[in-house]
Amino acid sequence: MSAAKILIVEDEGIEALDLQYRLISLGYTAPDIISTGEEAVKKTEETSPDLVLMDIMLPGEMDGVAAAEQIRDRFDIPVIYITAYADDDTLQRAKITEPYGFLVKPFREKELHITIDMALYKHKMERKLKESEKRFSTTLRSIGDAVMATDKNGLVIFMNPVAEKLIGWKLEEILNKQLTKVFNIINMYSRKPTENPIKKVLLEGFTAGLANHTLLIAKDGTEIPIDDSAAPIKDDKGNIVGVVLVFRDVTEREKAEKALRESEDRYRTLAEELREDDHRKNEFLAVLSHELRNPLAAIRNSLNILDRAVPGGDQVKRAKVIIDRQV
């Protein structure tokens, strides 16, 4: 592992040289000594040191606090302030720049060593955390499902583009607002509000899902069928620090299920019609079978009708006698 490179920003020449000597004896490299804030910013850009030791009180228009602020914002390099004295206003300005430490002159070598090592370690961990958060955020922003996250009070702290599109709000519009105020859900059939899973997770600490047939009411009033689940976000001690909500648009699935139900209804209707047709067919075949087995029955029935219509007809009577003998 290479030695950390320290940039010294100190306008007192003897003190700067003494500090350089002590840094080298502690195993650091300190190739440059700068005496003004403007030069400090320029040298930081040119050499990318691992850490800057910055005297608060510097000559010129840019003091140590102003220089440290630029170095932090532009280059993300940790700064430790060194000073013998400073007024309260300057110290308050210095705190706002989020320094990684303060060294008050005169300071011991051990104090210098510990302060630098702690600053370097803290900055390293913060950088890893930022990289991890960036990867995590990139992943959540690129997945197909809508994702929202809240803190332990149910206030929105994250939302990916898919969620923005579905609910109709931009993250900056609802950041630090109650999720329940913008995530409005109702039952598809009863039209009554559905229990928001965020509240349940925060109260019980377990994963919760939405009931079936849930509609999301977007900002513009659009109704979108969704399903979702919410899970607690816990710290390393198991304490709930927030909730993550994952949901998706199930419009196409609802359409498919509706089409399937309609198809099943048509099938049942068709099956019933086929059963009725089959019953009528069986009745017809029974009648036809009877008629085929006794073809003269129809003729006899016709003669009976004719006899009633023309009573006393000799020819009709003789025909009936002949048919009766054959049936």
Key traits:
327 residues; Rossmann fold; 7-stranded antiparallel beta sheet; Beta-Lactamase; 53% helix; alpha/beta; 5-stranded parallel beta sheet; 3 domains
Write a brief caption for the model.
The protein has 327 residues and is α/β, with parallel strands linked by helices. The chain has helices at residues 13-25, 37-47, 64-75, 88-96, 109-142, 161-167, 171-174, 179-182, 197-204, 251-293, 296-309, 314-326, and strands at residues 6-9, 33-34, 51-55, 79-83, 102-104, 146-151, 156-159, 184-187, 208-209, 214-217, 223-234, 240-249.
Overview of the molecule:
The radius of gyration is 45 Å and the shape is rod-shaped. It folds into 3 domains: 6-138, Response regulator (Rossmann fold, 3-Layer(aba) Sandwich); 144-249, 2-Layer Sandwich (Beta-Lactamase); 256-326, no CATH class. It has 327 residues and is of the alpha/beta class. α4 (88-96) links the parallel β4 and β5. It has 12 helices and 12 strands. It starts with 5 loop residues before the first strand and ends with a helix.
User: Mind telling me which CATH architecture of the largest domain this is?
Assistant: 3-Layer(aba) Sandwich
Count of runs of 4 or more consecutive helical residues: 12
Task: State the CATH topology of the largest domain.
Answer: Rossmann fold
Secondary-structure element pattern, one letter each: EHEHEHEHEHEEHHHEHEEEEHHH
Q: How many distinct beta strands?
A: 12
Helix content: 40-55%
Kindly give the count of domains: 3
Helix vs. strand class? alpha/beta
- Quickly name the level 1 CATH class of the largest domain: Alpha Beta
Question: What gyration radius follows from the Cα positions, in whole Å?
Answer: 45 Å
Unreliable spans are none
Largest sheet: 7 strands, antiparallel
* N-end to C-end Cα span: 120 Å
What is the oligomeric state here?
Answer: single chain
CATH superfamily of the largest domain: Response regulator
Q: What is the 3D form?
A: rod-shaped
